[in-house]
Write a structure and sequence with these properties.
By secondary structure, the chain is of the alpha/beta class. The protein contains 15 helices and 17 strands.
Length: 476
Amino acid sequence: MTYQLPFDVPQPSYDEALGILRSALRFGICPMLESVEDMLSELGDPDLSFRSVQIAGTNGKTSTARFTAALLAGEGLRVALYTSPELVSYTERMEVAGRPVSEGSFARGIAAAREAGGRVNARRSRTGERPYDITEFDLLTVAACVVFAEAGVDVAVLECGMGGRWDATSAVKSIGSVAITGIGLDHMRILGDTLEKIAGEKAAIIKRGRSCVLGVGTATPDTMEDVFLEQCAREGVVPTLLRPEALADAAGEMHPGVPREHARLPHATYRVIERPDRIGGSLVLDVRTTRASYPEVSALKPAYQAANVACAVQLAEDYLGHPLDAEKLFDSVATCPTPGRFDVVRPDPVALVDACHNPQSVAAFLTAVRAVAPSVGERPTLLCAVLADKDVEGIVGLLAPEFPRVVCAQTASPRALPAEELVKLFEAAGNAPAAEFGSVAEAVAALAEEPFVACGSITTAGEVTGVFRPGAQSRG
């Protein structure tokens, strides 16, 4: 159906829209959906103009969302994609038909969301209710729904920003299919300090009437998997369990343990038949879903992406209710970009970025590094910068023994760990850094003539990407 805004909104500039978002940062993270639900209602329910797929998880959700969007687009649908955070520009969070939306469309969406929030809060004030604290992510999510509705998309693929129960994307009323890629210890202050508690927050997106794929990272330990299975049972949902045919094909994606069989539940599986032997080499895998088999699916991706590809294939099938066109599937996977995920941003000398930012995602990243460069002494220099509110010791403990030379930097984020503190952690882990820099850009400049890999946070990946792709807009 055609969507139109129910009221006029001024058209701000892109910079003004960024200012609106910055002003909302003071509210931090507010665990509630009512604000987003009321804003969408005020806007005439733009989220009912399209159908939706929702993806949650600690690691792998962005790549799975991108593959899902590419697969659905390959089936002839007009697809929107909502992901977070951005690498370089805020517009990257909203894509339509495979491209970030324009700055004008982005700004219009933000203006509509702000106006809706203002109207909702004015009404609450008149009735003696406390106005909502409308967060940055609330504004972005509502804005995305407006932008997607006005663009006339068929389906929106929504990546949860954090958790699931209170994530702003969970206010969208048109969600019909969901997937959960896996669980790691991240955002513990908000989501809980155990895998089981975090799983409970993400499992909340499993609701009656929705299809559900449980990715490989949900299978172990048993106590965590039980959280998902119990939620499915409460909601009357029969999940599809994704499993690797060989546990080695999920290295870095699963917690220790052997997955249970659950013979009565439907399964999807995958098998890696060719691993990349160099950075930028080919991954080839066979995928078997509940409806079809797809042999020799290929992509220029690291091996850890196999689980995300397979999850996306099953999720896309569930949304459509039928098998995918095999030839279109191959093309969609092969051409799908995954910015910031084992991403070569300079070919010679090679500069590679990865957005790994917690021990689980670092473990997956290192699995890919070992596959293409088995000898530690032959690997490039590591450029590392991290955020202070992450498991920094866990990240450093994994990275330190894996690279012959390390340099430390500090991102521009207000959450950044100072470079000198990161240096001390690497020294304690047995790999004293060769240099420290006050910014990522300075570190990149110092590495102009040598190969390097950069990781430690999504912000790090974005800042390095911005150096080599100067045509991208700034984050503002």
